[in-house]
Amino acid sequence: MDTDDWVDRNRASYDAVAEAYVDLVARGYPARDPHDRALLDLVGELASAVGGGPVADIGCGPGQVAGHLHGRGVDVRGIDLSPRMVAIARAAHPGVRFDVGDMTRLDLLEQSLAGALLWYSLIHVPDAAAPGVVARVARALRPGGVLLLGFQVGDEIRSPTRGYGGIPVTLRAQRRPVARVAGWVREAGLVVDLEAVRDPDADPPEGRVLAHRPG
Q1: What is the gyration radius of the CA atoms in the chain, in angstroms?
Q2: d(Cα 131, Cα 174) in Å, to the nearest integer?
Q3: Residue partners of 11: CB distance under 8 A and separation at least 6
Q4: pLDDT averaged over consecutive 10-residue blocks of the chain (215 residues)?
Q5: Domain that holds residue 183
Q6: For the chain, how are helix, strand and coil distributed in percent, rounded to 5?
Q7: CATH number at residue 176
Q8: Which of 40, 42, 101, 132 is geometrically suited to a Cys-Cys bond with 79, CB 3.0 to 4.6 A?
Q9: CA–CA distance, 207 with 119 (Å, rounded to integer)
Q10: Total of domains in the chain
């Protein structure tokens, strides 16, 4: 698939499953997951430690993580490819700014962010484009600014035809080794603070990479 093709497919798929995703995945998260909640809260604390300011949740879906961070006093904004996801996020979290945007083409000002999240969103970007996304986000971080990535661990591409609620989709989702993702982060000039696998016996395990831009 060329770039426009997979971007369009991802957008259409998440527009289609948006309501089902809220019901099956997003509702009550991250409050019901103390491990993820603590790590997400750490992003807010680290952003505050470098003076606060914007934290971008890139690939925010229906806004559950951005809404949680907003409730913790974080100056957060959400960006997502799916207009339907953004509409749901705006309705659920009226105090947070949400915009429609393609993470492969975001125009982020250099050193404009105290923090950023790529929380299960880079999984839908092919390996050829993913390092560029990470580099773009890294440039947008101010010195000390933090980046957190969450993803599924493995080394394969999946192309499900049914999404949340059994709704037809044409998605691609890539599982990656933690070392590959951490390598992209280092190549972007960031210092990796954490490389971790959560639930290593799960199918799939969950990867976590936390990094910061050096001062």
Answers
A1: 16
A2: 14
A3: 81, 82, 83
A4: 74 96 95 97 97 96 98 98 98 97 94 98 95 98 98 95 92 95 98 97 97 96
A5: 3-212
A6: 40, 25, 35
A7: 3.40.50.150
A8: 101
A9: 10
A10: 1
